[in-house]
Amino acid sequence: MTTRYSTSWSLCAAAALVLLAAGCSTPSGQEQEEGGLGFVPNLERARFKNLKTSGLEVSPLDLNGDEKPDQWKVTAGGRVVRVERDLNFDGVPDAYLYVNDADVVLEEEMDLDVDGIIDVVNYYNSGVLTRKEMSVDFTGTISIVKYYDTNGKLTRIERDLDNNSRIDTWEYYQDDVKIRTGRDISGDGTPDVFEEAETAK
């Protein structure tokens, strides 16, 4: 099923996640280290704090009927560049959608604890979720990456357990069940040892 930009965009579900996370105490944010997980040079994204509006048209929209804008559609020459959403209705964007010329979603960023730092990045291929990057400590530093196949099934989870912006643990899945774990013992960025999951034995 192709994911397209729309005004609904899972607003209720996303807002519930934001409100849930907002009740948690989180450490102060830090910038994503250049060259680390999730870093893409010269890419305009909220997580890199380099989004521009100069020369672009910004169209506000009130989604919840409180006469205050909670969505901003940013366009260039009539083409949608991105859509920003305020999920907890405090006047500040918490989520960002990036779409192609057919309004099919390419990428989605979410600030779950509404501290101004992106915590989750979802990547789509032809509108289907293929990868999810997560900052589990809400600092903005990516420490978990999940990969999915074309049917939306989980195939692999990569983890940075020592928080050095390098993957050191790989979990492999079949039919959404973990079958094997690989670990980087030498620190060269590749798994050195593997352990079969109990369910695969």
Topology, please?
Elements: H1 11-22, E1 57-61, E2 71-76, E3 79-85, E4 95-99, E5 105-110, E6 120-125, E7 128-134, E8 144-148, E9 154-159, E10 169-174, E11 177-183, E12 193-196
Antiparallel strand pairs: 1-2, 2-3, 3-4, 4-5, 5-6, 6-7, 7-8, 8-9, 9-10, 10-11, 11-12
Question: Could you explain the architecture of this structure?
Answer:
With 201 residues, the protein is mainly beta. Helices cover 6% and strands 35% of the residues. The chain has a domain of 108 residues. It has a twelve-stranded antiparallel beta sheet with strand order 1-2-3-4-5-6-7-8-9-10-11-12, with no helix packed on it. A hairpin with a 5-residue loop joins strand 4 and strand 5.
End-to-end gap: 34 Å
Largest sheet: 12 strands, antiparallel
Spans of at least 5 consecutive residues with low confidence: 7-36
Count of β-strands: 12
General shape: elongated
Rounded to the nearest angstrom, the radius of gyration is 18 Å
